[in-house]
């Protein structure tokens, strides 16, 4: 907040506060957008790619092949969400 206290009086006036909120919101939106892209695009694509790759593995391949793509992608996406949440707790 000191960065936005232009007049160095220890308080943020209306304009200083507005600029602080604009920057805070922009940074938060960027972080949320990146996580959303990972969750909604990258995780399902990765799930389908790994499903195709594991279908040829003896023993595992038959089981993976029987799981519908939508269920498999949803499971991997949920795992990605859980990993993101656990990583947030570490930071």
Automatic annotation (TrEMBL):
GO MF: calcium ion binding
The residues covered by the EF-hand domain are 1-27
- Alphabetical list of InterPro entries matching this protein: EF_Hand_1_Ca_BS (IPR018247), EF_hand_dom (IPR002048)
PROSITE patterns in the record:
EF_HAND_1, EF_HAND_2
Protein name in the entry: EF-hand domain-containing protein
Q: Which PANTHER family match?
A: CALCIUM ION-BINDING PROTEIN, EF-HAND DOMAIN-CONTAINING PROTEIN
